[in-house]
Design brief:
5-stranded mixed beta sheet; 8-stranded mixed beta sheet
Length: about 375
């Protein structure tokens, strides 16, 4: 019995954060806050996502097949208990319980909590209070409060599964967090070093801070691709997924779509994954005559699997003929569809080589492409 489960609690309404919808569903850097929280824990075990009953269909649409969805209860403690009861306790030794509105829990922080459970039945991250503390009343300071021994609690909070399940079953009423439930049951809770960026989004200004955190941790990669195909007998060329009538064809092992090949290599390059030949060797007969959208789709999916989105793509076709301008918009739309991004993020344009070189002599077509990958 060694498996760890993760419970992400997101059943609240989060009205203090503003924005017109529950804070966990608000967009942050192009993704929902909750999707960022789920992604942070995906490598560590199966996820149980606790949602408000009104949000279950939304949760199914965004996370269906990747998490177990559980309806929340009347308060936070009941929501957590619902999730604990929904999993098979016979297969679990540990559980992490996390606030869905904390989208920046790092892998190092998660590992620290899990490691602490080797020596304690419960562990939770926290930061020592460094500011002076006051007790206030009616807008005035009543008395100073000692900050000695005080900590700011964070999540994920980790527990040995049987103990926290029994603690929740025995707990009456609500609790601020699961450490409170654990302490009421007499469990020893180890303090793990927390992180300043592991903020809980509560107020409108927290979202501005979160955007600044994203900018600081943004991973941007650029890739470059270049490809050439010679003309051969034929009556059309495939360029960026569009069949363009011409008095020649393009020679190649696949469909010789020079523009799509260059763009595919740009994405692979940004990922440090070589080129098309590494993933689809020309020595393999199954790829003879293959449609190039197979290659581009694979590269785009590989980027998504690594956590990157395609920020933009730019393809330049170099040839005297055929004329690209009348087809450029359709080409951009086709590439965007294959990559699963908006057409406004794809550019296709053309130039000649002023009758110089092999393209100037109309011996073939060349293409150069760049792609930007962004992880936030």
């Amino acid at each position: 019995m060694s498996e760890t489960a993760i419970i992400i609690v997101a059943a609240g309404r989060g009205t203090r954060a503003g924005g017109g919808e529950p804070k966990q569903w608000r967009r942050l850097g192009g993704r929902s806050v909750l999707s960022r929280s789920v992604a942070a824990f995906a490598p560590f075990g199966p996820i149980v996502l606790v949602l408000h009953p009104d949000d279950m269909l939304r949760g199914l649409a965004e996370f269906g097949g990747r998490v177990v969805l559980v309806a929340g209860g009347e308060n936070r403690a009941q929501s957590v208990r619902n999730a604990l009861e929904a999993v098979d306790e016979r297969r679990l030794s540990r559980v992490l319980i996390h606030d869905g509105a904390r989208p920046f829990a790092s892998a190092d922080l998660i590992r620290r909590v899990l490691t602490a459970l080797d020596d304690a039945p419960a562990a939770a991250p926290a930061l020592p209070v460094t500011d002076a503390l006051w007790r206030g009343e009616d807008g005035r300071v009543v008395a100073p409060v000692s900050r000695e021994g005080l900590f700011r609690a964070q999540t994920p909070q980790g527990f040995r599964f049987p103990q926290i399940l029994q603690a929740h079953r025995a707990h009456a009423g609500d609790a601020a967090d699961d450490v409170e439930v654990a302490l009421a049951a007499g469990l020893d809770v180890a303090i793990v070093r927390g992180e300043e960026d592991n903020i809980k989004l509560t107020w409108p200004e927290d979202f501005a801070r979160a955007e600044r955190i994203l900018e600081r941790h943004m991973d941007i990669r650029l890739g470059h691709g270049f490809d050439v195909h010679a003309f051969c007998e034929g009556d059309h060329v495939m360029l960026c997924g569009i069949r363009v009538p011409h008095d020649r064809g393009l020679a190649g092992h696949s469909d010789a779509d020079v523009g799509m090949h260059a763009l595919t290599d740009a994405i692979y390059g940004a990922l440090a994954e070589g080129d098309i030949g590494r993933h689809f060797p020309p020595s393999d007969p199954q790829w003879k005559g293959a449609a190039s959208h197979i290659f581009l789709s694979h590269a785009a999916e590989l980027a998504r699997a690594r956590g990157y989105s395609i920020g933009n793509a730019d393809v330049t076709l170099i040839c005297e003929r055929p004329k690209i301008g009348p087809h450029a918009a359709d080409m951009a739309g086709k590439l965007a569809s294959i990559m699963g991004i908006g057409a406004d993020r794809v550019s296709v344009k053309a130039t000649t080589s002023e009758r110089l070189g092999f393209t100037g002599r109309e011996e073939g077509i060349a293409a150069i492409a760049t792609a930007t990958l962004v992880k936030t």
